[in-house]
Amino acid sequence: MNNMSATITTTISTKAPAMNQPKISARGVQVHYGDKHALKDVSIEIHPRSVTAFIGPSGCGKSTFLRCLNRMNDTIDICRVAGHIAIDGEDIYDPKVDPVQLRAKVGMVFQKPNPFPKTIYENVAYGPRIHGLAAKKADLDDIVASALQRAGLWNEVKDRLHAPGTGLSGGQQQRLCIARAVAVSPEVILMDEPCSALDPIATAKVEELIHELRENFTIVIVTHSMQQAARVSQRTAMFHLGNLVEVDDTDKIFTNPDDQRTQDYIMGRFG
Amino acid sequence: MTHPHIMSAFDEELKYLTRRISEMGGLAEQMVADSVRALVNSDLGLAQKVISDDAILDDAERQIGEKAILTIAKRQPMASDLREIMGSIRIAADLERVGDLGKNTAKRVIAVAGSGIPRKLARGLEHLAELALVQLKEVLDVYASRSPEKANSIRERDEEIDAIYTSLFRELLTYMMEDPRNITPCTHLLFCAKNIERIGDHATNIAETIYYMATGAQPQGERPKDDTTATMGSVTE
């Protein structure tokens, strides 16, 4: 995808970027689904250890772009991605990059909680085990406990770790999925409408969690709730008809956005 | 250009706020004009009317505040919608204060009525009131048009009111020094002049609020100040 590929090693290094370096940098990203031009020349920088919200009407390309960031679009045959996306300066579409390794580094949480039909423990242990992150059973226990703690679920499930994950409430299941994403020590967590199937209490817990996770992870969240974007993010990017319309500090976007389309969208006006 | 909301009831709520603010503005203007007329003509009946009108203005401010809270809770407004609603609350509070100042002037009519006001002073007060009323009227027009440029120009004109207030202050001091019997009426007139001068300040506040509602930014630069009465008569002057 770019001329830097010769210098890139197969696995992506885990060196921490300086604070002023973007964690993710995208330039001229184009996505086609067959004939449909879904993303048009999107360029954006995503800051480390912060929450960036993608907003925009349905079909604007925000989820498509999110899925480019861990190459989830690779799984769709008719999808073609062009342009340049780098994490810590390294091209993630380089042929030498293993998408499985990339997705361990760039975790994802989906709209509907989708725990494996396994125990709570196994849901979280699965990723660390296949990625060989734990040498001994005790290490794995530690990873599971710490991931569940980080996901704010530990106190609710510590006495029933071997009960099925599907037996939890919707909000708990979603936090279990976040624990599962966190367990493999990712650097970036992508969230595609993580609260759209949750009630307000469960939503508040997930939002509080996002706020805490920001200290250690770079988070990108797609949301249809303007209030949620305003509450949880530091930067907001507005997408419309496949274009990135505006990206700015969240405080500015929700009080005084520059673009008319952003204004109309966040204020619920006809555009 | 601004598109209507998808939820038309939201537009209705915003229109309600705008309409009530305009009504408040009209009544506040009327009260200020009446209070000064009552003062210079020693018209106790008119003064009484101003005093009772103040309750209407108080009610209107409460109702605007309640509607604004309800709209924020229901619509979770963003960007210029949010500024619009916050601005309504602030402007309603300023207009309510303008009404209070008119009422205060009206209350003093009784105290001043017995002694009669020297013609020159009455003219000065009338002139001050005219200027304050022009400010108030223009700021209400700007509220209707939401022009940030006009809002800024109103802000700059408060200077003139301050200057006239300062000269009235000086004149009243002179009257008091001439004859101690003038002290009681002149003190009341001093408060009346101060009331009118502060109406200009509220008009300026409203202009700043409108500027913020329209642009999302605070107006640039210091507010002009020509009221130097705070240090007047001190030995160091």
TrEMBL record, chain A:
Would I find Ubl conjugation among this entry's keywords? no
Sequence ranges assigned to domain ABC transporter in this UniProt record:
24-266
> Organism's domain of life?
Bacteria
Alphabetized UniProt keyword annotations: ATP-binding, Nucleotide-binding, Phosphate transport, Transport
* A Pfam family matched in the record: ABC_tran
- CDD domains in the record, alphabetically? ABC_PstB_phosphate_transporter
GO MF terms on file?
Answer: ATP binding
Q: Which family does it belong to?
A: Belongs to the ABC transporter superfamily.
* Protein's recorded name: Phosphate transport system ATP-binding protein
Provenance organism: Sinorhizobium kostiense
UniProtKB/TrEMBL annotation, chain B:
Question: Could you name the domain of life of the organism this protein comes from?
Answer: Bacteria
What are the UniProt keywords, alphabetically? Cytoplasm, Phosphate transport, Transport
Primary residence: cytoplasm
A Pfam family assignment: PhoU
- Report if keyword Ion transport is assigned: no
Concerning Gene3D superfamilies, the annotation shows: Phosphate transport system protein phou homolog 2, domain 2
Task: Map out region (Disordered) in residue numbers.
Answer: 217-237
- Domain PhoU: start-end pairs: 21-109, 125-209
Cell compartments where the protein resides: Cytoplasm
**What does the sequence similarity comment in the record state about its family?**
Belongs to the PhoU family.
What the protein does comes down to: Plays a role in the regulation of phosphate uptake.
Summarize subunit and interaction data from the UniProt record for this chain.
Answer: Homodimer.
Q: Which PANTHER family match?
A: PHOSPHATE-SPECIFIC TRANSPORT SYSTEM ACCESSORY PROTEIN PHOU
Q: What is this protein called?
A: Phosphate-specific transport system accessory protein PhoU
What broad taxonomic lineage does this protein's source fall under? Bacteria, Pseudomonadati, Pseudomonadota, Alphaproteobacteria, Hyphomicrobiales
